[in-house]
Specification:
The chain is an alpha/beta fold and about 425 residues long. Helices cover about 40% and strands about 15% of the residues. It binds 4'-deoxy-4'-aminopyridoxal-5'-phosphate (PMP). InterPro entries: Aminotransferase_I/II_large (IPR004839), Asp_trans (IPR000796), PyrdxlP-dep_Trfase (IPR015424), PyrdxlP-dep_Trfase_major (IPR015421), PyrdxlP-dep_Trfase_small (IPR015422).
Length: about 425
């Protein structure tokens, strides 16, 4: 027998599986609403014009070589990333109160920060929202951090269960960590209001909990980078020590370039270099140093006022198209008189909608067994690919497929 004969085959990743199944499906009406990637009105991937512009500049820049980047990436890149989070003239940057490292997009930042936390807060639990992005749980497991959960989604009202959230977090111990989606919560599309953020901040402060912000959709929630950073900036002003994982996959359309940043904010500037050295110690044996190309694009977009303006215009365009699709989908569902209420489609923000369709198999007939869930029927009968939990990526909806989508939803709900 082979040396590999005891190797157990594991199930494929749920989100990437939708893409594989979609690609294999020969039906021309098929729609992929599984993975969260922006699509144009024609249903195609989109490369931002400002990204193309700086890519041409990079190619022509004779001073750029292929030397290694520093372990934590170029400091100018890290600073540019942090200026997007906190604002260009933020005191936290002026006073050099943030350590940071270039990361392999948002996932890499989460993983590096979890390793950092495991080394320095070995016995802390990390609290995740219920539900959350599936990879959060896996990253905690790999980093050997204990997972806690807090209530978040109120299925009945299809809104935030703020009381449940505060009650669950009030049971956390001092030094525990709370992972918060900075905006455009994945998968629910439901964010706390500014007042609710203030309640959350005051509880975390009172109970000495450490905030861990995941910001993967800044600019995608409202189209405005500053508004989408309001929660993080509030926590910064409130004087927290905290960490931030940041991704440019969505807001700059750099999915495969893997450009992101891990930030550690310290109210005491004297502790920044210790934190920086710990980030280095995590990264060096993990992948040694980051790729430079994606980071070069991000740096050039952020640090030129002209490019920054072009970027913001395209972000407004992308998020505007998504908001438009939410309105159209709701209109169609209401016109079809699809059972239920559909205001949550337009109330939710960001890339995803938590439709309320269920992946749980229901026995719909007393005579014969119907074991297909609503989501199963969306996929098998209508060729619309989505996640088992009812999440659809609004970015994959276009004026051409929105009516087809609404009719399919109507069919599985009725
Ligand atoms: N956090 C959340 C909540 C996300 O939805 C994503 C992207 N799906 C990420 C982090 C990171 O993605 P990436 O590694 O592609 O930047």
């Amino acid at each position: 027998s082979s040396v590999w004969s005891h190797v157990e085959e594991l199930p494929p990743d749920a989100i990437f599986l939708t893409k594989t199944l979609f690609n294999k499906d020969p039906n021309p009406a098929k729609v992929n609403l599984g993975i969260g990637a922006y699509r144009t009105e024609e249903g195609n991937p989109y490369i931002l014009k400002v990204v193309r512009k700086v890519e041409r500049e990079i190619l022509d820049d004779v001073k750029l070589d292929k030397e290694y980047a520093p372990i934590c990436g170029e400091p100018q890149y890290v600073h540019a990333c942090q200026s997007v989070i906190f604002g260009k003239d933020a005191p936290v940057l002026k006073e050099k109160r943030a350590a940071g490292a270039q990361s392999l997009s948002g996932t890499g930042a989460l993983r590096v920060l979890c390793e950092f936390l495991k080394v320095n807060f070995a016995n802390s639990k990390v609290y995740l929202s219920k539900p959350t992005w599936g990879n959060h749980t896996k990253i905690l497991l790999k980093s050997h951090l204990e997972e806690g959960t807090y209530r978040y989604w109120n299925a009945k009202g299809r809104n935030l269960d703020i009381d449940g959230m505060l009650e669950d977090l009030s049971k956390a111990r001092p030094g525990d960590i709370v992972l918060l989606h900075a905006c455009a919560h994945n998968p629910t599309g439901v964010d706390p209001t500014l007042d609710q953020w203030k309640q959350i901040a005051s509880l975390l402060k009172k109970n000495k909990l450490i905030p861990f912000f995941d910001t993967a959709y800044q600019g995608f929630a409202t189209g405005d980078l500053d508004r989408d950073a309001a929660a993080i900036r509030l926590f910064e002003k409130e004087g927290f020590d905290f960490v931030v994982s940041q991704s440019f996959a969505k807001n700059m359309g750099l999915y495969s370039e893997r450009a992101g940043c891990a930030t550690v904010v310290s109210q005491d500037p004297k502790l920044v270099s210790a934190c920086q050295s710990q980030l280095e110690a995590v990264i060096r044996p993990m992948y040694s140093n980051p790729p430079r190309y994606g980071a070069e694009i991000v740096k050039r977009v952020i640090s030129s006022p002209e490019n920054f303006k072009l970027w913001k215009e395209e972000m407004t365009y992308m998020s505007g198209r998504i908001i438009k699709m939410r309105q159209l989908l709701r209109q169609h569902l209401e016109a079809l008189k699809t059972p239920g209420t559909w205001n949550h489609i337009t109330d939710q923000i960001g890339m995803f909608s938590f439709t309320g369709l269920t992946g749980i198999k229901i026995n719909t007939s007393s005579f014969f067994f119907n074991t297909a869930s609503q989501v199963d029927v969306m996929i098998s009968k209508h060729h619309i690919y989505m996640l088992k939990n009812g999440r659809i990526s609004m970015a994959g909806v276009t004026t051409k497929n929105v009516e087809y989508l609404a009719r399919a939803m109507d069919d599985v709900v009725k």
